[in-house]
Inverse folding.
């Protein structure tokens, strides 16, 4: 309807495009508001990153490095990975084979 209104008298050069332009701008604004609302609903639940790291550790065979976990868990900070590994080590689920910059870890047998 707005396209029809904005293009009336186009051949005479007396058309009014602002009707359609305003409709488009309103539609874009409404879409951005809906997008913003939906993005706000997608917050990560508490403990999700920890579960992601633990799942990555459970899925490994043999030894693994912190860099391996970083590749498997994008968006998780290095400090969080180290914190979870420390906690898993204290609970006896993993052990450190080699320390330092090239540290290696492995799961302990249950």
């Amino acid at each position: 309807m707005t396209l029809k209104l904005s293009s009336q008298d186009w051949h005479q050069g007396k058309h009014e495009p602002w009707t359609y332009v305003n409709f488009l701008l309103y539609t874009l604004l409404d879409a951005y508001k809906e997008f913003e609302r939906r993005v706000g609903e997608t917050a990560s639940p508490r403990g999700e990153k920890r579960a992601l790291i633990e799942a990555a550790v459970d899925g490994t065979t043999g030894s693994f490095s912190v860099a391996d976990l970083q590749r498997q868990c994008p968006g998780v900070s290095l400090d969080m990975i180290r914190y979870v590994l420390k906690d898993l080590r204290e609970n006896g689920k993993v052990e450190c084979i080699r320390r330092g910059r090239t540290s290696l870890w492995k799961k302990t047998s249950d």
